[in-house]
Amino acid sequence: MRWRKLKGSFVLGLLLAGAELSTASSRGVQQVFVSEDPCSSIGGKRWAYPSAVRSCFQSFPVDPKLKANIIEVINKTLAFHTSTNYQIRAPEPFSSEVHEDVVGDLARISKQPYTSDFDLHIDLSRTLKRLNDGHCVYINYCYDALFVSYLPTPLVLLADSNGVQNVHIAPEAFSVISAEFQDQIGYWEDALPENLSLDQLSGAKVLLIDGEDPWVAVEANAAITGGYTAYGTRQNSFFSSYSLTSNGWYYVMGNFAQQTLPLYDSRNLTIIPVNSSEVRTITLPYRSRFGDLSVDFADSASFWDNNCRATIGTNGVDLRSSSETELADIYASVSKLEQQPRISFREAWQHRMNVYMDARPTGDMDLPAMLQPSKKPLNGSQGVAQFYMLDDDITGVLALGSFSSESFAELQKSLLVGLTSLKNSGATQLVVDVTNNGGGYICIAHWLHRIISGPRASTVPQAGLDTTTRAGPLARLIVKQVISGADSNYTSSYDPTQWTFANHTPMPEGYDWMASPVKTVINGREDAFSQRLGQECQPFDMRPPADPLFDPRKVAIVSNGRCGSSCSLFSITMAKEDGAKTVVVGGKKTVPQQYCGTVGGQSTGFFHIDTEIKTAGLKNHSLAPPDFLTNSVQGITWRLGYGIWDTEQPEEWQYHPADYNLLLTNATVNNPVAIWEAVVAEVLS
Ligand SMILES: *[C@@H]1O[C@H](CO)[C@@H](O)[C@H](O)[C@H]1NC(C)=O
Ligand SMILES: *[C@@H]1O[C@H](CO)[C@@H](O)[C@H](O)[C@H]1NC(C)=O
Ligand SMILES: *[C@@H]1O[C@H](CO)[C@@H](O)[C@H](O)[C@H]1NC(C)=O
Ligand SMILES: *[C@@H]1O[C@H](CO)[C@@H](O)[C@H](O)[C@H]1NC(C)=O
Ligand SMILES: *[C@@H]1O[C@H](CO)[C@@H](O)[C@H](O)[C@H]1NC(C)=O
Ligand SMILES: *[C@@H]1O[C@H](CO)[C@@H](O)[C@H](O)[C@H]1NC(C)=O
Ligand SMILES: *[C@@H]1O[C@H](CO)[C@@H](O)[C@H](O)[C@H]1NC(C)=O
Ligand SMILES: *[C@@H]1O[C@H](CO)[C@@H](O)[C@H](O)[C@H]1NC(C)=O
């Protein structure tokens, strides 16, 4: 890209694009054709046309050096991802959902030419997304969510009084957009016919999207959105939902109304507005808003410099020579796209995490006031954990938006205080709402399972899943370095003192736990994993109650299916071992709904793996990934949990069918209290 900076104009960009210049010369135009810099028209703008954002993105040709770098980093990082060979064809029942040979596809991408760096990015991003694994995701902040494109019509799937499901514009659509997009309302109003206004769209039944059955669009999204193995769960991402964050109840627009890349300019909707029988077809343009995490720019050169180069937190650090303040700064930017509150380096390093990763910004769009719980949150409520008692005075509710929190200890305490108070107040049954809960601290998942279910075979000593980690040659070398003293002030994930044997007894200091890896063949490829690891969370640093707080069979775990990572560890052990009920809300009736997904065991990313490699003094090893040159992130599953029903196979691809699929109506959709009451009526009574 350097030549572009030196030139300072866009003449060469046009030469590459070709078309306009040749038109100019064929007309015999004598002037030097200097186009405007395609990035300067969107630089400094809060709102832009998706087409303008696209022109900026597409103006950068592929730089072979950067392309090779990205592919090498991803490829060498994947050697630490537990699931690469499984995902070539996932075990049944998910073989038709996951069949991506990612290493093979990287080889294809290396050879394939692309019109622009943006086109290369789309192929890379979608290739990784085809793993349908929210832990193993490739993000490049140069493009992903740099601008986020919105429509004013989040969609929902509602059942009518006969239980027939139809796609609708969310009844709350106008409340949401008039609070969030005040400055764009007029723009969208202008796109509508004169006798139709934006507020009249709320609740409308959607007959067609772009002239076709709405399910065509739902399925097109499910095919490329990634993140979850199960088809039903990926379908659900199309629709709007809510999420409890450390800053309150947020609205999630869904993939139809919110896109992280500017690929669509507009959508046609054929609708019947509420209280009308007239079929209307409207065209609504997407508007692209500058992302909250994007760095301002003025032109192509500053766009690239500010947003596309590796930055603080992209690459790992050698912990042997990093100060606490340096690490704090770095970590602030590392966890930015993980679905969790910002946490400190020390918390993240001390408490192992299992977190879903998404280019979708967690956003800051409030759930409209009329949909927020009007009940007062009870004792123990804080941040992502809120406790309520329903009007029946026997159903307690734990709304848990995440298993992460700025402070591990505070979240741990809040769960104990909140559930104990609910029990003391007379609650005999419990609804746990984990809608859009992308996981977090592994040991919080174990803790929550243990305190609800009490001490029993499924919770003591192991309240989660046994695991294994990939034992590639470089991983094994890191263990050797760590046990011979390369560890720093922060305990390495490769340090044996972090782990227990399969029988849950701690590994001794200096023990080479990867000396004899378990060799196996998966989908015809040779692979190697560590010995089976037991639990590492107990004894907890807080004393759990001697008795169960709730009868687990009277616990209903509720979500839109998008409960991943540590949220899966919690739900699976509660459901499969202790008989908790599982409920998905709003899924399509005819499609099997899974109550969770993206199980993993422990997730991490390039930054952490690179930190392990650098701290072990192995960065010069031929298998070590180089530093990223671009503003990129590669996530991986670092430990993979063994199954509960089939204890010798990963839980990741075992079945997690929800006991109930609670259809949403215009009275319950995106209304947490109404959903909890419906769950009590259908599931807990
Ligand atoms: C990826 O790594 C494997 C070794 O693990 C190597 O055989 C392959 O050539 C690499 N692919 C690319 C595209 O570099
Ligand atoms: C809500 O759904 C019911 C039953 O399907 C219907 O009669 C009513 O008109 C709907 N109300 C709105 C505002 O869409
Ligand atoms: C709105 O205008 C269109 C044509 O401009 C007309 O066909 C339609 O009947 C009008 N609808 C209402 C509800 O006024
Ligand atoms: C949307 O409708 C317009 C006419 O109003 C049409 O020109 C366009 O092709 C349609 N787009 C799609 C994707 O159906
Ligand atoms: C539809 O009609 C009902 C009954 O007249 C009214 O209560 C409701 O507010 C109307 N809804 C909309 C969106 O106009
Ligand atoms: C690690 O320990 C060394 C020596 O005790 C100290 O100088 C250094 O600042 C520590 N680093 C961190 C990140 O705590
Ligand atoms: C809630 O907390 C208050 C103050 O800590 C305490 O007095 C009260 O007993 C608690 N309520 C329950 C139900 O535990
Ligand atoms: C890697 O190799 C280079 C050149 O041989 C050397 O300068 C550097 O110190 C080495 N780095 C490490 C971490 O060993």
Automatic annotation (TrEMBL):
Keyword Signal tagged: yes
Gene3D superfamilies from the UniProt entry: 2-enoyl-CoA Hydratase, Chain A, domain 1 (3.90.226.10)
Domain of life per record: Eukaryota
Taxonomic placement: Eukaryota, Fungi, Dikarya, Basidiomycota, Agaricomycotina
Keyword terms: Signal
Protein name, per record: Uncharacterized protein
Signal sequence region: 1-26
SUPFAM superfamilies linked to this entry: ClpP/crotonase (SSF52096)
